[in-house]
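Researcher: We plan to redesign the surface later, but first we want a full-length starting point. Tokens attached.
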């Protein structure tokens, strides 16, 4: 016959004067101890009877120690969190967007916030970032700064969803730089275009042997006389250039309308013939020393900016007006638009050659172009229609095209 299960209530007098009770009994061959806390004697006896009955039936179970609370998640730095976020999400974006986001993230956001823990980034931190960007020697435009802030807001919002931070310090209109419509510059005189091309040509002649592969004058001429975007120019290959037929094909562009054909007019044909030297069709027109495409940033800082500064100095020395304060690749694209109107092209064709579906830019430049005097218009027509000058004289276009093509073959 099985021995009955017995137990007892034990008491303990606490320092606070209260009596604390517990149960002591044997269950499943082991002595057990269950703490009840500051309960009455009656409550303790009742609990003992229940426990002993459960032991008799074989259903009693020892209380499990509660799981310790989870360790709080370590707050990562912005650089750690942003890098993880980018690796998880970059495949969702098109290649051009990936390039843009990577630039915003690596060059600007991680450079500034990278070592700061997420929970230490506050509204004041974001304001300090904005002030830092506006105070740089070569500051970003308000729009570009706001684009980095938009990406910062997206990353910090994900940190809020992960319960790493309580609120998003980059959210809100007051976390943005006030944008003003930029003054869109272009070169509005033949002497300005000539000065810029001449300055680029001088840089070509003065280049160190390791940098002579950079065709500075031809690159600037391509933007000015074909209206290409900077990325389109960097991606241009010789298979896209039909010198004999007189067409340049833009196959890589950020929009569907951007894939287009542009007429190769005299001045551009001259410049491309100068750099054509038997390259294979798949080779880039403006390659790096290793054969890859030129970098847009390198072109802006090492070619266009330097050439524009030299051209302005030359114009001022001759008593003429300097170039606009900031000559950008887009300024040369607007210059091309202006030149087309000087040639008498209609707005529809101008939009086609620019790769635009919105006539706003074309019509705005059209109004500016119509204000020029006839002498200036004639000078610009001569500039864009010009042929190659070699051996002290002007060669015919047919001869200029056929001979280099025969040599290349």
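Model: Full-length starting sequence:
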């Amino acid at each position: 016959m099985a021995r009955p299960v017995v137990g007892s209530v034990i008491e303990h007098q606490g320092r606070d004067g209260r009596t604390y009770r517990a149960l002591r009994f044997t269950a499943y061959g082991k002595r057990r101890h269950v703490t009840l806390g500051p309960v009455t004697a009656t409550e303790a006896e009742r609990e003992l009877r229940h426990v002993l009955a459960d032991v008799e039936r074989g259903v009693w179970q020892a209380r499990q120690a509660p799981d310790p609370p989870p360790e709080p998640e370590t707050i990562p730095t912005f650089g750690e969190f942003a890098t993880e976020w980018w690796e998880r999400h970059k495949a969702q974006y098109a290649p051009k967007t990936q390039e843009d986001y990577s630039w915003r993230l690596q060059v600007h956001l991680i450079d500034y916030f990278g070592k700061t823990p997420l929970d230490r980034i506050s509204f004041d931190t974001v304001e300090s970032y904005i002030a830092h960007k506006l105070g740089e020697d070569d500051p970003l435009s308000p729009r570009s700064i706001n684009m980095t802030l938009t990406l910062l807001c997206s990353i910090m919002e994900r940190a809020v969803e992960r319960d790493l931070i309580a609120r998003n310090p980059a959210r809100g209109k007051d976390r943005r730089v006030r944008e003003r419509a930029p003054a869109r510059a272009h070169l509005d005189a033949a002497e300005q275009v000539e000065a810029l091309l001449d300055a680029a040509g001088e840089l070509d002649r003065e280049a160190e042997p390791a940098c002579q592969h950079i065709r500075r004058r031809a690159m600037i001429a391509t933007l000015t006389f074909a209206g290409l975007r900077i990325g389109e120019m960097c991606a241009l290959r010789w298979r896209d250039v039909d010198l004999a037929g007189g067409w340049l094909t833009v196959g890589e562009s950020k929009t569907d309308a951007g894939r287009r054909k542009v007429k190769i007019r005299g001045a551009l044909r001259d410049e491309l013939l100068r750099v054509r030297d038997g390259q294979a069709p798949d080779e880039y027109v403006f390659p790096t020393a290793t054969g890859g495409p030129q970098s847009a940033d390198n072109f802006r800082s090492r070619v266009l900016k330097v050439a524009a500064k030299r051209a302005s100095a030359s114009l001022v020395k001759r008593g003429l007006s300097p170039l606009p304060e900031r000559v950008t690749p887009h300024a040369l694209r607007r210059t091309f638009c202006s030149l087309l109107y000087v040639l008498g092209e209609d707005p529809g064709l101008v939009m086609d050659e620019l790769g635009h579906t919105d006539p706003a830019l074309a019509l705005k430049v059209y109004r500016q172009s119509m204000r020029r005097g006839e002498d200036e218009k004639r000078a610009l027509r001569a500039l864009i229609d010009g042929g190659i000058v070699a051996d002290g004289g002007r060669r015919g276009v047919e001869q200029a095209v056929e001979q280099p093509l025969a040599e290349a073959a």
